[in-house]
Amino acid sequence: MKNIIFDIGNVLLDFQPEKYLQQYFSPSVMGDLMMIIFSSDEWIELDMGTMMIQDAIQSLTLKHPHYHDEIIFVMENWTHMMTPLQKNVEIVKELKDKGYHLYLLSNFHKEAIQTMFQRYDFFNLFEGGIISANEKLVKPDKKIYQLLLHRYHLETSESLFIDDMLANINMAKECHIHGLYLPYQSDLRTELQKRDIL
Q: Which PANTHER family has this protein been placed in (predicted)?
């Protein structure tokens, strides 16, 4: 194995919107906002790169005027919930020191990923990566995996992809990339040790 490919949300950065919203809203409002924002077509379009954050805010507040201020608050501040999963970040550093080539493959909004790259310097350890909004492709579309392999000249037999969503891992395997399914809060170190990578 030479190339380790990481998803970002819940693999490198904690992404638990319910936990975040609970700090600011009652349970019923939190539940509504989870549906209105994180299950919306607009959220998918942000990942696809076909909509920018201000457009999404305008669209969502028009559809849900009774939550106008709450939607704006969440959409302008949600990136603060994304904090490093420190144990996994340490593993990224170890893998880099061991000589592995590191890449990203993530569904992420264009403006939000720029914020993350500026906020957290461990992203400098990665040689490259594919971010959905920059390519107008989202996992688990086969094309996004093929684009990663092609752009960085990666051999599938030498590449391991780590993701917290089983559908994304299944598609990686369909593309003959080794997959490591990592449900939220699983022990990445143990999984990599099983594969003789650490």
A: ALPHA-D-GLUCOSE 1-PHOSPHATE PHOSPHATASE, FLAVIN MONONUCLEOTIDE HYDROLASE 1, CHLOROPLATIC
* Angstrom distances, CA of residue 134 to CA of 52, 88, 91, 95, 115: 12, 25, 27, 26, 14
Residues 146-167: pLDDT tens digits?
999 999 999 999 999 999 999 9
- What number of helices (H) and strands (E) belong to the chain? 11, 7
Contacts for 101 with CB less than 8 Å, ≥ 6 apart:
2, 3, 4, 127, 152
* pTM listed for this prediction: 0.96
Residue 29 and residue 42 in one domain: yes
Do both 171 and 147 map to the same domain? yes
Of 65, 81, 97, the residue at which a domain comes to its end is 81
